[in-house]
Specification:
heterodimer; A: mainly beta; six-stranded mixed beta sheet; about 0% helix; globular; B: mainly beta; 11 strands
């Protein structure tokens, strides 16, 4: 079985500041990890995914994440926050099952 | 290329009624997934269909059911609606392939049970 834990249900950053959203995973098999973003009243959009090809994964809109097996982590970062980054972010995992198992989500607020 | 579409956008029902939600996947995608996003419960996997067959289901009662049609579109049926079924229901589609193939999500159907 796989699971992910997102630390911090709400994160606030100033515009231009570093964004760091935390995700830790638990998996009995090599995991595939994903970060999705959800804007209000919309579905989910894939930001990036880890497929074991490279530990540092670059995604859309300037986001990236690093897979650290020793820490069982897959934290999402962006060097400089923009107002348009305000949304809810979900970490997810697949492994032995094809469906996604999601974390509880982190609401990102960007302050002017 | 058209994305995943879902209908209706909003659905209001009363307790005990049945609800039918529809999903059209991206052209070429054979797998359809249903997820429930309920307040306080997060995103939970409901059902996975591929090539017309139910491949897996999440921890939901049997009154949640569905089917996939020959054109790969899908329907989610919820019988004997309960207040706690109020949620955003998201449909996603993908090609079968690798476990890390991206699932593309539709905008969802907001179900309200009164």
């Amino acid at each position: 079985a796989q699971s992910v834990t997102q630390l911090g249900s709400h994160v606030s950053v100033s515009e231009g500041a570093l964004v760091l959203l935390r995700c830790n995973y638990s998996s009995s098999v090599p995991p595939y990890l994903f970060w999705y973003v959800q804007y209000p009243n919309q579905g989910l959009q894939l930001l990036l995914k880890y497929t074991s090809a490279a530990t540092l994964v670059k995604g859309i809109n300037g986001f990236e994440a690093e897979f650290k097996k020793s820490e069982t982590s897959f934290h999402l970062t962006k060097p400089s926050a923009h107002m348009s980054d305000a949304a809810e972010y979900f970490c997810a995992v697949t492994g032995s099952a094809r469906q996604l198992t999601f974390g509880s989500g982190t609401q990102l607020t960007v302050l002017p | 290329e058209a994305g995943v579409t879902q209908s209706p956008t909003h659905l209001i029902k009363t307790r005990g009624q049945q609800a039918t939600l529809r999903c059209s996947p991206i052209s070429g995608h054979t797998s359809v997934y249903w997820y429930q996003q309920a307040l306080g419960l997060g995103l939970q996997f409901l059902l996975w269909y591929d090539e017309g067959e139910e491949r897996n289901r999440g921890n939901f009662p049997p009154r949640f059911s569905g089917r996939q049609f020959p054109n790969y579109s899908s329907e989610l049926n919820v019988n004997a609606l309960e207040l706690e079924d109020s949620a955003l229901y998201l449909c996603a589609s993908s090609t079968l392939g690798a476990l890390y193939n991206e699932q593309f999500f539709g905008p969802g159907t907001r179900l309200t049970v009164l």
